[in-house]
Design goal:
The structure is a homodimer. Chain A is an alpha/beta fold. Chain A folds into two domains: about 55 residues, Spermidine synthase, tetramerisation domain (Spermidine Synthase, Chain: A, domain 2), CATH 2.30.140; about 220 residues, 3-Layer(aba) Sandwich (Rossmann fold). In chain A, a hairpin with a 4-residue loop joins strand 2 and strand 3. In chain A, helix 6 crosses helix 7. The first copy, chain A, is globular. At the A-B interface, strand 2 and helix 8 of A face strand 2 and helix 8 of B. Strand 2 of chain A pairs antiparallel with strand 2 of chain B.
Chain lengths: ~290, ~290
Amino acid sequence: MTEYVTRPRRFNDIWLTEYSTENLTLSMKVKKFIHAEKTKYQELLIADTYDYGRVLMLDGAYQLTEVDEFCYSEMMSHVPLCAHENPEKVLIIGGGDGAIMREVFKHDCVKKCTLVDIDQRVADCSKEFLPFAGKSFEDPRCDFKCMDAMKFIHETSERYDVVIVDSTDPVDFAAGLFRADFYSDVKKIMKPGAILSELTMSPFTDKDIMQQSINEMRKIFPAVKLYWGVVPTYPSGFWTYGVAMNNPEMNPALPVRKVNGTRYYTSEIHKSAFVLPPFLEEMINR
Amino acid sequence: MTEYVTRPRRFNDIWLTEYSTENLTLSMKVKKFIHAEKTKYQELLIADTYDYGRVLMLDGAYQLTEVDEFCYSEMMSHVPLCAHENPEKVLIIGGGDGAIMREVFKHDCVKKCTLVDIDQRVADCSKEFLPFAGKSFEDPRCDFKCMDAMKFIHETSERYDVVIVDSTDPVDFAAGLFRADFYSDVKKIMKPGAILSELTMSPFTDKDIMQQSINEMRKIFPAVKLYWGVVPTYPSGFWTYGVAMNNPEMNPALPVRKVNGTRYYTSEIHKSAFVLPPFLEEMINR
């Protein structure tokens, strides 16, 4: 009787790989590809992975995973929101998947959250394939504008209490969102006592961008601080955020309100996030 | 004239890959392979990488990289050491590369640091190829024992102020280092008021091991606490550590001494590291 040689099943594994830098990659084994398309602005891909659940990738960069997005979404939103006494009007720039907006709506005092994202398809695909994030678009307080953020900021007559810049990496159409010109425009639509938060990447994989973003913020705002947290699926896992305020008397490290229903954020975590390791302190104060 | 097609240079890239789990990998581009051997206990590999400098891999798992080992080495050592009023005698189990021992020697009060590692080749290769870690073996306070840690603990008549368990992953010969039997033996060689610290892995990639290690510690010690920090090249980057004490009155979250020359650790970071996000608190208190 003949014994046939067969190709082992494991060679059929499909993997998703992100180049965190050109010399560093993070790969996840895929259970199922859900959706892929080239939108007007970027390559959009959604897959189910074994370790991190549903994953959204834009232009080859992990944007959000079902398992760890709370680490990022909560820290991007609740830190500025809880440092503000009464945030009623919130602006999110980018964040088209809706995860940050979901967190914003955990604050009852928020009356309206305007989300400006250039790519309608991110919002649409999130609503369809990433409901844990995308269902925030159903909240009646949601005011979604599909347009260029720079244009919106120039044209709007609204003024905001909290502005959250949740962009993709600072390349291509998002590059301008990390520069002084942009911060200067944002400043004009911030109420007195308002706070801005923005991702400032990793001190390990994106040291130059982190330093530059903070320096550009400092050119425009009298008070700028850095805080940090872990996001396992972002480059190096060590993630930083910048906060900027018009009022230098304000201490963003001090939460003045609480929020319920969180998994990463607490008032104590809020305060701790502003305690910087010396290597990081040095990087931003040189 | 003929134009020849040539194979592009970039296909000659060499990459090092770790399976953080069977469904998740972290890869680094290699500048140069430095050394590889099969020791009596494990596959040992040392390479120069572009992003993380010199890297030590044991059985396919990143143990230490030149660029980020301070995150781990400082948190494993200074937290128990600074929570102790006068640590004179320190025991490191594992840690054959010497990086933790280097941190221990930053405390002038330490009179002797015994390092017990089963694999002589790790120490030898570290001295030769990873001097930033391995040169700690030259300190006159270093007492290196190349032997099985369980055997050492059974036989020694010494008593310690601080015990640091810096093992490889809890598999094969290191599996026993995460179990109640082991903790029970360690307890016998700890002075009154002594502290034990041990890596307890990641809540994202090794939730079960983390929970089990903490539970096993709790079977033996009246006081056990978890703390956390970032180590970019360890699975998920979100790393946890357990501390256990004989004296339940002792608060390991409160540093009673300072240490100089650190890049991650400060007294404030020490305190912050014990502030747990709710998802992690829940995991260990169920």
